[in-house]
Every structure is written in C-alpha cells, then in structure tokens.
Amino acid sequence: MNSATLPSFWSAYARLDESIKRSARKACRLWAENPFHPSLLTYPTPEGTPNGLLLLMGQISGIAFILGMDSFKSPDTGSMTQPLVVLIGLMVIGLLLCTRLREAKTLTTAGATETLRH
Questions:
Q1: pTM (2 decimals)?
Q2: In degrees to the nearest 10, what's the CA dihedral of 23, 29, 34, 37?
Q3: Mean pLDDT per 10-residue run, the chain (118 residues)?
Q4: Residue 54: CA atoms inside 13 Å, Cβ hemisphere, count?
Q5: Whole-angstrom Cα distance, residue 77 to residue 73?
Q6: Nearest Cα to 111, choosing from 53, 46, 36?
Q7: Looking at the domain assignment, is residue 54 inside a domain?
C-alpha cells in the first residue's frame, strides 16, 4: 500500500514526546505489514447494540429455562430429576464443543504474533 505525508505532519511529529513517537513508529510498521490489523481500527465500533442484545438473550434464555424445566417435570410427583439430568448432559456436550473452538486467523498470523510479543 502506498502512503505519503505532508510537511505539516513532520513538523507536528517533531513536537511529540518520544514515547508517542515510538508508538507511532510501531503502528506504522504494523500497518506496513498488515493494513487491516484489528489494532489499527480507526473508526468507532458500536458497543451498545451487542451489549443490549446479550442482555436481552440472557433474559429470554432465563425465561425459556424456567418454562422448559417446568414443562419437563414429572406430572405425578413434580420431580425435576429427569430434566436436570438432561440439562447436565447438555452442559457436558456444550463443554466438549467449547474445547473444539480455535483462535481467529487474525490472531494466529505472524504479524499479529510479532505485535503481541512487543
């Protein structure tokens, strides 16, 4: 990718503290290696919507859990042994599936690994 700077950039850069200059040089090297690296994100990402959706899904899943457990209980005794055994089985399956998860490719690239070491 090609880039250019204006003389006004260099005059402003010269006035920066040395720690900020180091950080800028590091970001520039990273940009040269991978311009789409997640740490170079320069536009705001909306956090309110995903957070709200997580809260909403937590509420919905809680209601579904209560209704599901109530519908599976024994009609004669009201025992919840069978639905609890099913729940434990589902939790074990979920745990096994979680162990199969892999890191995102952006975190396993050489450039990202090099950046994380510094």
A1: 0.38
A2: 0
A3: 82 90 88 82 69 90 89 85 89 93 68 50
A4: 5
A5: 8
A6: 36
A7: no
